[in-house]
Amino acid sequence: MAGIDVVIEEKKEDAVDRQKVCPFLLRVFVSTSGYHFKLADYNKGNTPANELQIYTWKDATLHELMQLVKEVNPETRRKGTKFNFAFIFPDNRGPMYRMRDIGTTTTGIKGPDDLKTLAQARFTIGDYMDIAITPPDSWNSGGRKGYSNNFNNHRQRPY
User: Rounded to an integer, what distance in angstroms lies between the CA atom of residue 159 and that of residue 148?
Assistant: First the structure.
């Protein structure tokens, strides 16, 4: 009998055919201070000044988005630079916005959130993305108060 080769192709449940599906505009606001922007920066039709406009799909991963940000911000290419991703979305109960942390990636270091997609993070078209970027010398200094080596440490600018 002739041998039969079986090929099993793994298909991601949220995979998008990028040749057939039109991308959407993702408005990304990048802070290089290590803190997310204040929610007040998004109120009354305002947005923070440091905006990137990225056309992407719901199957885009946080690692893929990190790579796009690194292309336009050379200072974020250093190994150990931490990217903390959050969604900013309108609050259904009032005229304000809410923030939801969705994950963290680090330049040059594989992490558990690298392959998380926008769909898995429950992204809704129209939400903003806020990325707080922390240089490696800020978060990796062991003795400084307020810093941690925990990759999932979510920091928001104090009010």
Answer: 20
- pTM, full prediction: 0.77
Q: Rg of the chain over CA atoms, in angstroms?
A: 18
- pLDDT for residue 147 is more than 90: no
* Class in CATH terms, 25-139: alpha beta
**Among all chains, which residue has been given the structure tokens 């050379």?**
74
- The pLDDT tens digits of the residues spanning 97-140 come to 999 999 999 999 999 999 999 999 999 999 999 999 999 887 55
Residue 51 to residues 24, 31, 59, 80, 101: CA-CA distances in angstroms? 16, 9, 21, 23, 18
Which of 99, 105, 115, 100 lies closest to 139 in space, CA to CA?
A: 105
What would the pLDDT profile of 22-54 be if each residue is shown by its tens digit?
999 999 999 999 999 999 999 888 999 889 999
Query: How far is it, in rounded angstroms, from Cα 37 to Cα 87?
Result: 11
